Amino acid sequence: MNNAPTGMGMGMMDGMGGMMMWGMGLVWLLAIILLVLGIAALVKYLFKSKH
Question: pLDDT digits over 14-34, tens only?
Answer without folding.
Answer: 667 888 888 999 999 999 999
